[in-house]
Design brief:
single chain; alpha/beta; Rossmann fold; 2 domains; seven-stranded parallel β-sheet; six-stranded parallel β-sheet; 13 strands
Length: about 425
C-alpha cells in the first residue's frame, strides 16, 4: 500500500503541520507513505517538493499573486484578501512519478496557488482512490475558507459576505458551479478532524453524498508534555512569579482569529485590578503593528516560532491559553496547550466544544461575548484548584487526542478503500 500525502507545505500553518505529523505516525505504523509539497521546507527524506529551482520559486509566487490580483476587484475589504481562494491557477501533478506510483492520493490543504480546480480535476480523472482531509470549509463553499454565519454553502452560495458586490450570481456562486462540475459524482472520501465540520460537509450541497469520516489530527503526547516552569521561564526570559496569558497563531491578525475580541476581553478584565494583579500577556506568531500599546497589561511579543520545544515551553509557562477564534475546525494549539497541562479559554464555536469540557478542563465562552471570555480567563487565573484543573486538562487531552487511534483509523480507511 503506497500512500501519497499532497499539501502546500509541511510547516506553514496548522494544516501543514497536521499533515506532516500524519506522515510520521503512518510511517511508524509501517505504511509506505510519502509526502508531495510545493514549498521545500523540510529535510525529511520522505518529503518531496515540486520546487527545485529559484525560477520555480518565482513561478509559485506569481501564481499566488495572480490569484490575489484577480480577487482584488471582488473583495469586500483587505481583511478578507487571503480568506477566499479562487483556485484559478496551480500546478499540474498528473505526470509526477509519485502521483503515478501511489495507490492512494491523500489531499490536504492545497490552496494559495498550489492546486487549481483544473489540477484537482486531473487528479480525480486518474481514477485512483482520493482521500481529502478538509482543514477548513473551502472545498464545500464557493471560495471562502470559513463561512462564519453564512449557510449559503447548503444551496449554491451567492450573496457572499466576503464580496464587494454580493448577489445571486456573484463570484462565489459562479465558483460554486465550477467546483460542482469538478467534484460532482466523484469517488472522494472525506476526512474531517472535527464532528462539527463533518456535519457541515454532510449538509453541504456539493459533498452531501460523499463518504465522510471524522478522524482528529495526530499530536504526539510524548512531546507535548509539561516541562519545569522555572526552567522554561529562564529560557524565554520571563518572570516565574508572573501569571501569563498566552495568545497566538501563525497570523494573529487573521480575521478568523478574533484578535480584537481577545483585546477587548483583556480590557474588560482589567477593570477589575485584583483580577489582573501580576498578570501579563505573551503573544506569539505574526503579530503586525505595535500591538503592545493596545493592551492595558504588559505584553511580551515573541516572533514566529519554528521550534516545537519552544512552543512546549510557552505552553508550560502560561497559566492559560486564550483562543478567540470566530470559527475553527480543530485548532492544534488548543490540543497542544492542554497536553502541556495548560487550561484553555475559548469561544464555543466550530469544533472547539469537542475539545474542551466547560468548567472541567477549561472554559467555553459564549460566541463573540467578550465579557464571558474575560470571565473565563478570570475563572482560570483565580481557580483555587488550579493544579487539579491543569492535571485534568492534560488527562482529557491524552484521552481525546490519541495519536495511535488517529493512525489506526487512517490505516483502516486506506485498507478499506483498496479492498
Amino acid at each position: 500500500m503506497k500512500v501519497l500525502l499532497v499539501g502546500k507545505s509541511t510547516k506553514n500553518g496548522g494544516a501543514a503541520i497536521a499533515s506532516y505529523r500524519l506522515m510520521e505516525i503512518l510511517r511508524e505504523s509501517g505504511v509506505d507513505v510519502k509526502m508531495l509539497v510545493q514549498e521545500e521546507d523540510n529535510n525529511d527524506e520522505s518529503v518531496f517538493s515540486t520546487t527545485r529551482s529559484m525560477l520555480k520559486n518565482w513561478i509559485n509566487f506569481l501564481r499566488f499573486v495572480l490569484e490575489r490580483l484577480l480577487f482584488l476587484r471582488h473583495e469586500k475589504n483587505k481583511e478578507v484578501r487571503f480568506l477566499f481562494s479562487m483556485a484559478n491557477t496551480g500546478e499540474h501533478l498528473v505526470r509526477n512519478k509519485l502521483i503515478r506510483e501511489a495507490d492512494i492520493i491523500h489531499l490536504h490543504w492545497v490552496n494559495a496557488g498550489f492546486l487549481s480546480l483544473a489540477s484537482l480535476k486531473e487528479l480525480l480523472d486518474l481514477g485512483k482512490p482520493i482521500v481529502w482531509t478538509f482543514h477548513d470549509m473551502w472545498a464545500i463553499t464557493g471560495g471562502c475558507h470559513h463561512a462564519l454565519s453564512c449557510e449559503r454553502y447548503k444551496q449554491a452560495c451567492g450573496e457572499c459576505l466576503y464580496l464587494k458586490k454580493p448577489g445571486k450570481n456573484d463570484l462565489s456562486h459562479r465558483l460554486w458551479l465550477k467546483k460542482n462540475r469538478v467534484f460532482r459524482d466523484r469517488n472522494i472520501t472525506v476526512i474531517t478532524p472535527s464532528q462539527w465540520l463533518g456535519a457541515c460537509v454532510r449538509e453541504s450541497s456539493m459533498f452531501s453524498q460523499m463518504e465522510v469520516h471524522t478522524i482528529h489530527n495526530p499530536i504526539d503526547q510524548t512531546k507535548f508534555i509539561p516541562v519545569e516552569r522555572e526552567d522554561a521561564c529562564r529560557d524565554l526570559g520571563l518572570d516565574p512569579s508572573k501569571k501569563y496569558i498566552l495568545f497566538g497563531a501563525v497570523s494573529v491578525r487573521n480575521l478568523y482569529k478574533g484578535f480584537n475580541f481577545f483585546l477587548d476581553a483583556i480590557r474588560q478584565m482589567s477593570k477589575d485590578p485584583e483580577a489582573v494583579e501580576g498578570v501579563e500577556i505573551v503573544l506569539f506568531g505574526k503579530i503586525g503593528g505595535d500591538v503592545e500599546q493596545m493592551f492595558p497589561l504588559k505584553v511580551h511579543n515573541i516572533d514566529y516560532i519554528s521550534s516545537m520545544q519552544t512552543m512546549v515551553e510557552l505552553y508550560s509557562v502560561a497559566h492559560l491559553y486564550a483562543s478567540s477564534s470566530l470559527q475553527d475546525n480543530f485548532p492544534s494549539t488548543i490540543a497542544e496547550s492542554m497536553l502541556c497541562g495548560t487550561p484553555v479559554v475559548a469561544f464555543r464555536t466550530g469544533g472547539i466544544p469537542e475539545m474542551i469540557a466547560h468548567l472541567e478542563d477549561g472554559y467555553l465562552a459564549r460566541h463573540k461575548d467578550v465579557v464571558d471570555l474575560a470571565e473565563g480567563m478570570k475563572w482560570v487565573l483565580s481557580n483555587d484548584s488550579y493544579q487539579a484543573l491543569s492535571d485534568m486538562a492534560r488527562k482529557a487531552a491524552v484521552r481525546r487526542f490519541s495519536r495511535e487511534r488517529s493512525a489506526e483509523k487512517h490505516v483502516e480507511l486506506y485498507r478499506k478503500l483498496l479492498n
